[in-house]
Design brief:
4% strand; two-stranded antiparallel sheet; binds zinc ion; mainly alpha; 10 helices
């Protein structure tokens, strides 16, 4: 299969702006999380919480159950820390996954509407290959992990139950996150849009200011700054 260089190069600019907005969304959620963990008296780095995660999942990915490796482990938020799911960095919502599951789950985390389950993590574990369109990418992912359908359904169901049990042990933080969710999503939408608008306007203004330096020095790029007068002639081999 050929690699599409043009597509990958072209994606950089639009991604950069949404990356900044998403970063701000994450910072806001982390700030709310700090207040919540202070209220419930337990953070995700507390020894008691680490022990709880270890007892529930061991040193395994909480989704696929594969052993975690030092360079292949990710801090995983069951309810994604984004503007769609508004998950917090609080006990009950944080565990460890393999980087592959962390990446594959983003399709559910970033879906505006979920069809299989009420939350992103439950939806991710519901792609057992029996309820989606034939080309569903998450169903395809789980088929690569467990090819046999009966085994796949059983394993995914068992992982879902294990996570539910884990979360029941941290119900206070989970309940607060539920209460705040719809309000948070509305604020996160505002933060995201404000950041994009700020970035667009700020960059536009400073780009003009930066290029004005060249305008004052026409010798730099005379052809480019004078309306393209110096555009090279079309190649003779080009069709007219
Ligand atoms: Zn995994
Ligand atoms: Zn699916």
């Amino acid at each position: 299969m050929s690699f599409d260089v043009s597509k990958h190069l072209g994606g950089a600019t639009s991604r950069a702006k949404s990356d900044v907005a998403n970063k701000l969304v994450g910072m806001f959620l982390h700030e709310v999380s700090r207040k919540i963990t202070a209220k419930i008296g337990m953070g995700v780095r507390d020894a008691r919480y680490v022990q709880s995660v270890t007892e529930s999942f061991g040193a395994e990915c909480l989704y696929c159950g594969k052993g975690l490796e030092l360079d292949r482990a990710a801090v995983e938020h069951l309810d994604g820390m984004n503007r769609f799911r508004a998950g917090l960095h609080i006990p009950g919502n944080v565990a460890l996954s393999c980087v592959r599951c962390n990446r594959e789950k983003r399709r559910d985390d970033q879906a505006i509407l979920l069809h299989l389950a009420p939350s992103g993590w439950e939806s991710f574990l519901s792609h057992d290959g029996t309820r989606c369109q034939p080309k569903c990418m998450n169903c395809s992912y789980w088929m690569t992990i467990w090819a046999n359908e009966t085994e796949r359904i059983d394993r995914l169901s068992a992982r879902r139950q294990r996570i539910l049990n884990f979360r029941q042990g941290h119900s206070e933080g989970i309940r607060l996150n539920e209460i705040l969710r719809s309000g948070l999503i509305s604020h996160l939408d505002e933060v995201y849009r404000d950041c994009q608008a700020f970035a667009t306007e700020s960059i536009r203004r400073r780009t003009e200011e930066t290029l004005a330096i060249l305008e004052a020095e026409p010798s730099c790029f005379p052809a480019m700054l004078k309306g393209g007068q110096g555009t090279p002639p079309a190649s003779k081999s080009s069709p007219v």
